[in-house]
Amino acid sequence: MRVISGEYGGRRLKALDGDHTRPTTDKVKESIFNMIGPYFDGGVVLDLYAGSGGLAIEAVSRGMDLGICIEKNFAAIKIIQENIAITKEPEKFIIKKMDANKAIDFLKEEQRIFDLVLLDPPYAKQEIEKQIEKMIVHRLLSEQTVIVCETDKSVTLPENIGPLAKTREVIYGITQITIYK
Q1: Beta strands 93-97; 66-71: pairing state
Q2: Which pLDDT value is given to residue 119?
Q3: Structural domain boundaries of the chain?
Q4: Which of 142, 136, 132, 154 is nearest to 64 (CA)?
Q5: 116-125, pLDDT tens digit by residue?
Q6: SS3 state at 24
């Protein structure tokens, strides 16, 4: 697993051993960023199920100003910290150890606004639609927000969630990428 492109391109990232996280493959990661970017002119990215932090690191590498990584697994937090250290720019990242739903409430209190949201929950525990609706209600999304959902290919997400419309859906093996704008 590595950073594909941008400022940190080519740097190797660590992944958590075992089945606690399911890192996005380099092929899928590259495809995601080619669909939504591939590069950014600033902004804030939220990685709500950060795992190894690879997606947020990729977004910052490609031009986002700040990456917020939410993860509840302690061992995964340690891997995220190690991966962020590889960037040599830890000030561009915030790591919070908490449940995704609690994090949405916490981010409301901090009055954060996100330009890119990455949702890659464990396949068995998906609450994507509810979480996006909650982010809309809490006004956590900018007018130009792009939301990337990574799910099992058997998951059917709605065409619209509030004012957001599904703009793209692609399947890679067992993984489905759905993009909302």
Answers
A1: parallel
A2: 95
A3: 26-180
A4: 142
A5: 999 998 765 5
A6: coil
Q: Which letter, b or e, does each residue of 117-148 get, where b requires 16 or more Cβ atoms within 10 Å of its Cβ? A: bbbbbeeeebebeebbebbeeeebbeeebbbb
Which amino acid, 7?
A: E
**What pTM value is reported for the model?**
0.93
CATH class, domain 26-180, is: alpha beta
* pLDDT tens digits along 160-180: 999 999 999 999 998 999 999
| β-strand partners of 147 | 117, 180
CA pair distance 71, 147, nearest whole angstrom: 18
174: nearest Cα among 148, 155, 147, 159: 155
